[in-house]
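=== RUN LOG ===
request id: a7f3
mode: sequence -> structure
chains: 1
length: 260
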Amino acid sequence: MPAWNIARADNNRAALEMLRAQAYDLVLTGEETSGKQDVELLRQIRTVRPHIRLIIITSKSTPADVIGAMRERAFSYFSEPYATETFEQMLKLATTGPVWDEGIEILSATPQFINLVARCDRKTADRLIQFIHEIADLPMKERDAVGLAFREMLMNAIEHGAHFKATQHVAISYIRAKHMVLCRVKDPGEGFSFEELSHAAVMNPPSEPIRHEAIREQQGLRPGGFGILVTQNIIDELIYGEKGNEVVLIKYLKPDQLDD
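=== RESULT ===
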């Protein structure tokens, strides 16, 4: 853990004055302010420190606030309750690595319909997964399911479609309808067919549930290969495009999961 010099501000106005007077590497907002207030702080900070990293931490949040934070290039966003381990990992990402602020670009966005592109590297993927987790206004069980499925499909796109090339981008769509949540992920790769996936768990016959592990070892691949199978088991529909480089995942919402 690096040695950090930490300065505290009593409120957002004081924080802005401190940043006008001195440059800092990272800003964490206080939980007592709303997401909307913190987005406004970030907007003002950008006029004096355009490339500073800022993580919003708040107890009052809406999907519109998260979208606003992404537009203003916040590094990440956490609303209570959140997992301490996830926050610690994001804090580590924020204090290491090169310039990040071009990694996620919103093309159009409302709380119900978001289109964006994201750079194909693991750090940007981790940031995007946290943003989508915050945008999804769902009960915790459904939010976790959508988040896990989205993570698996995004990492497949970045690893197998773009081969972790930071010069490439994935296209993402998120739709929150009354009775469902839909996520679309399109990578820049050439695609695949399921007949080529003998190294993936989804192609294992029922009598050989771990056959793919031996095939992965023979091919020199890292352990894993469960992404599509896991996603199929937690999402209601998983639909691939003709080429295989575009996938849509759908989670249907029961009546008791809908807003009043």
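=== NOTES ===
The CA atoms of residues 85 and 222 lie 24 Å apart.
Strands lie at 26-28, 53-58, 76-79, 104-110, 113-119, 169-176, 180-186, 237-240, 246-252.
=== END ===
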